Predict the 3D structure of the following.
Amino acid sequence: MTLTPTLARILGPIEAKLLNKERLTPEDGLLLYQEAPLTWLKEQASKIREEKHGGEAYYNRNIHFEPTNLCVYACKFCAFYRPPKSTAEQGAWDYSFEDLKNKLDQYPAGTLTEIHVTGGVHPDRGVEYAEALCAFIKAARPELHLKAFTAVEIAYFAKKSRLSLRETLEQLKQAGLDSIPGGGAEIFDPEVRRVIAGGKAPAHAWLEVHETAHQLGLFSNATMLYGHVETYAHRIDHMLRLREVQDRTGGFKSFIPLRYRNESNALSRLQEVSPEEDLRNYAVARLFLDNIPHLKAYWAMLGLDLATEALDFGVDDLDGTVDDTTRIYSMAGGPTHPAASVGLLEKAISSKGRIPVERDSKYRKQAKSC
């Protein structure tokens, strides 16, 4: 794209930095959000994606398990949450290990590679419950990669059981935990966090959980909830803090921007951002987060069509099959029954001229089954 003289003066130095593999500053990041044409961002983010991943784009075969939506935290953006005393008639659930076994039995060996476990922060559960859940899953399906518990859940387990974060993570790893999902990050700025997330674990606790996990040999993902009351400066601050942790540990595999959805929550007065803003956010993230290898468009939040479009804006991963096993976003206005076959994901990736690659949770390529 040919820039106007004014835009060339603003964006030319940033383009030169990208060409020379120089790190962007927070000021550069703000300019990308505020001034860069979407077409230009698309071009720049696509170059970086191609340098990192060539023509490949990834997916996996996964399901979610959400043990409970009873939660001690009443985040204003959350349609999933129910107060701890809620009943089934009020939309609450609290699944047993037997319920989980019944779910796992629906998937024969070889049909899944990962189970993703997150849920509400139950008031009565410490690390002992989390250990038992990990051990149960590993005994039932030892071949599955167990990605479980947000940093917010882990911080609560530690507090409830009167353990340090390191002790908690060591015990979970011993019980079978393989990696940590990126949820609960929201926006790190404390003022924004107070507005949208109440008493939830603060930013420094979220970051400490992940950094400690990385030190113990557990990798993780990172998220950012955007499109509510935050500013572009808050988004850049959030990504900067992630970039700094990644410089120290290298433990983040993927960054996953999560769009705020406005149904059935205390912030429903807010309008959702436009698809163009979603794409801008992906492109800026790809350019600013130079040290996190993968950028994921979580289609169960965004919808498969828009997630597929994001493959042209720096994204290299569409997440997985999911198979209608998560309600966190469907309760807030996302796809009602999020499920995608391998064929559907491969077709979406191919439609953008990419090479579909099935991966495991470590982004290792999986051999095609006959």
The longest helix spans residues 232-249. DSSP finds 14 helices and nine strands in the chain. The mean pLDDT is 95. The two ends are 44 Å apart (CA to CA).
